[in-house]
TrEMBL record:
Residues 1-18 form the signal peptide. This is CREG1 protein. Its main location: secreted. Residues 21-189 form the CREG-like beta-barrel domain. It comes from Dromaius novaehollandiae (Emu).
Length: 192
């Protein structure tokens, strides 16, 4: 009896710290994975000479709020400059896809889940990138600079600006049997 009690007591803080949601809670899973990720792969439609119209995936730092157990806003904020090759694509066509995966957290390594294993949960967002207005820029700055302190020292003459991924479609890959879709309404209304 005693070891069982001890086990239960030991398990409690994990839940309190925001353990991974159950696979049937797809909207919460999407929020959980995004909040636990510091970066993602962003695919744009290339405008480069010789590559025009072809998919082009690149890594971007992101944040939906300060790290920690209490969820986040769910909004993937980004810090961008027009000098960046993918941002040049977005100026022509802001449509994009963003993928985040628990492969970048200790979770999949601890459970020995290969990144392509659905149990190593990954989320695919489709939508477009939009510049945020001045009032939202404060939130975006707090979200990004708390996780990516180096951003504060990035060259001022690059004209960095705050942006967000405007989510229109969400796919959740967190279990066997195919992917699940979540609407942006479900995603933003769920308690993370
Ligand atoms: C972006 O995607 C939307 C939705 O599919 C589409 O209506 C729009 O034409 C696309 N924008 C461009 C610039 O291709
Ligand atoms: C800024 O953007 C936010 C989020 O889209 C919106 O709720 C708010 O009304 C906007 N503020 C202004 C002053 O346009
Ligand atoms: C965000 O996405 C919605 C749905 O596709 C679209 O109607 C809206 O225009 C987008 N917002 C911006 C600022 O591009």
């Amino acid at each position: 009896m005693v070891p069982l009690l001890l086990l239960c007591a030991a398990a409690l803080p994990l839940v309190a710290r925001g353990a991974i949601p159950a696979p049937e809670e797809a909207a919460r899973m999407a929020r959980f994975v995004l909040h636990n990720c510091d970066w993602g792969a962003l695919a744009t439609l290339s405008t480069q000479e010789g590559l025009r119209g072809r998919p082009f995936a690149n890594i971007f730092s992101l944040s939906d709020g300060a790290p920690g157990p209490h969820g986040g806003s769910g909004v993937p904020y980004l810090y961008l400059t027009d000098l960046e090759i993918s941002v040049q694509d977005l100026e022509v066509n802001s449509n994009a896809s963003l993928t985040v995966s628990l492969a970048q957290t200790p979770y999949c390594k601890k459970h020995k889940y290969d990144p392509q294993n659905p149990l190593c949960a990954h989320i695919i967002f489709c939508g477009n990138i939009v510049k945020v207005n001045d009032s939202e820029a404060g939130l975006a700055k707090k979200a990004l600079f708390s996780r990516h302190p180096e951003m504060e020292s990035w060259p001022k003459d690059h004209n960095w600006f705050f942006a967000k991924f405007n989510i229109t479609n969400i796919w959740v890959l967190d279990y066997f049997g195919g992917l699940k879709t979540v609407t942006p309404e479900e995603y933003y209304s769920v308690k993370p």
